[in-house]
Amino acid sequence: MSPQQAQLNGLALKSRHAVNGAAPLKPRQLLGKYKIERRLAEGGFAHVYRAMDTVEGIRVALKIPHSRYVDKESLDYFRREARLAAKLDHPHILQLKDASFIDGRFVIAFPLGSQTLDDRLGKRMAISVAITLVEQILEAVAFAHERKIIHCDLKPENMILFPDNSLRLTDFGIAKVAQRTVRASGSGTLGYMAPEQAMGKPSFRSDVFSLGLILYRMLSGELPEWPFHQPLPGAEKLQRRVHPEFVKLLNKALEVDPNRRFRDAGQMLAAFNRIKAKVLRYCGKKPRSSASKPTNRKSDWQTIRRRQFQREFAKVLETRHECSACGGPVSEAMIACPWCGKGREKHEGDTRFSHQCPRCHRGMKADWSYCAWCFGPGFEPASSRSLSDTRYVARCTHSGCAGKELMPWMRYCPWCRRKVRQKWQIAGSSGRCRRCGWGIVRDYWNHCPWCAKSV
Question: Which of 64, 72, 234, 300 is most open to solvent, judged by the fewest CB atoms within 10 Å of its CB?
Fold first, then answer.
């Protein structure tokens, strides 16, 4: 045994004994750089707390496994899974911010969401919102399957919601430690687990079955239980709410015979994309009522205008957020609302990046040295390797920067910190701001979101 391995084993043993019988953390208690605010959840595997990162100035979720799971085998497992999760850089997969021992406790830090999908399913959900979440769930699992990763524990509790109905999938591997322990004890229920997975034979098709159960519950309000008999509970409500082809998609995902299901989430996502337009049109049908109240024409006009803008430019500009003053759609990179002109020095809402700038709260990648949006101070990169990203579309032209890659709407190069020379344009719009030269959409906007000048 190497000295390093012996040291790790000793640390694990010491940490396990240190937290045996330890009381839950209390509000305002400090745990390293984290200040505990309140406990969010308690399960058979871990406590989850909301805490303030006093260094970065942002709130995070801390998952602290119970001491009986923090042994050498579990630590090795966590290490492998952390390396695995680092490869899953996707907007709808929750990135691990930190995993380390702090004051004798094993602490796993994540970005803080507003609630889990399980919490959200306890309230009424518009069908249009449900379809939006369905697409995000399928994209996340398909991305993992494309990289030959089986989740094995898909359930609403492992899907975290952020503002603007943005969803992120979590617990790649971490939940497997708890699952393995629960099964070894002979307890636990099937829940969202495929029949063959309960018999110890998980596969991509097992994840597909779990996806089918989750989506079925979202849209019907019922969770079928084993043994499954047709028609499933809630089938009539499901048929009233969604297009018949979507019902067929769910039925295929829920086939008891794995060979009759989609082979993986990628194939299921492709099938969903083929019928998505039909599903959305079907959801938009509403019965007319002569007793409906008259609406505010100005509000209707603004709503229609913004919906039309979103149809044309939401994907290009990633306008997933809303202005806190007027409610107009805005993107994370905008420094002003293009609808009302309100300044956005600090971003309000979630980010699709793994880290956040403590100054402007916009997203950062783990290998950046500087904030690309606000000329913030330097950072110690969280990763020593260069991380690729499909969002890179250009290169820095400054000398000495070696042509480092840039994403749209970056104001500063995250590698050399100099102002980006690129005049970013909007695909589908020829408008340019007279002041900064960046792209604008004159048919909709009243202000340039990149320099705040009136247009």
Answer: 300
The tokens for 17 are 């004994």
What are residue 81's phi and psi, to 5 degrees?
-70, -35
- Residue predicted with more confidence, 209 or 175: 209
Q: d(Cα 253, Cα 212) in Å, to the nearest integer? A: 5
What residues does each domain of the chain span?
Answer: 3-111, 115-283
Alpha carbons 372 and 208: distance in angstroms, whole number: 38
Q: Assign 3-class secondary structure to 296-350.
A: CHHHHHHHHHHHHHHHHHHHHHCCCEECCCCCCEECCCCCECCCCCCECCCCCCC
Give 65's strand partners: 46
The CATH homologous superfamily to which domain 115-283 belongs is Transferase(Phosphotransferase) domain 1 (1.10.510.10)
Tokens at residue 407, please?
Answer: 């994403």
- For 437, the token pair is 């030269």
CB neighbour burial string for 324-354, b if at least 16 within 10 angstroms, e if fewer: eeeebbbbbbbbbbbbebeebeebebbbbbb
Among 395, 392, 399, which Cα is nearest to 422's? 395
What distance in Å separates the CA atoms of residue 44 and residue 228, rounded to the nearest whole number?
27
CA dist 22 and 373 (Å) reads 43
**Pairwise CA distance, residues 234 & 392, whole Å:** 45
How far is residue 312's CA from residue 429's CA, in Å, rounded to a whole number? 10
CA 156/CA 117 separation, integer angstroms: 5
Q: For residue 150, how far is the Cα from the chain centroid?
A: 18
CB atoms within 10 A of CB 156: 20
Q: What is the pLDDT of residues 354-399, one digit of tens each?
A: 788 888 989 888 888 899 999 877 777 777 778 888 899 999 999 8
**What one-character DSSP code corresponds to residue 115?**
E
Report, as an integer, the average pLDDT of 156-180: 74
Q: What tokens appear for 283 in the block? A: 């959801």
pTM: 0.58
Name the maximum alpha-carbon separation found in the chain.
80
- Return all residues near 60 (Cβ < 8 A) that are at least 6 apart: 34, 50, 51, 52, 53, 97, 109, 110, 111, 112
Report the distance separating Cα 285 and Cα 307, nearest Å.
Answer: 17
**Fold type of domain 3-111:** Phosphorylase Kinase; domain 1 (3.30.200)
Q: 65 versus 334: which is more confidently predicted?
A: 334
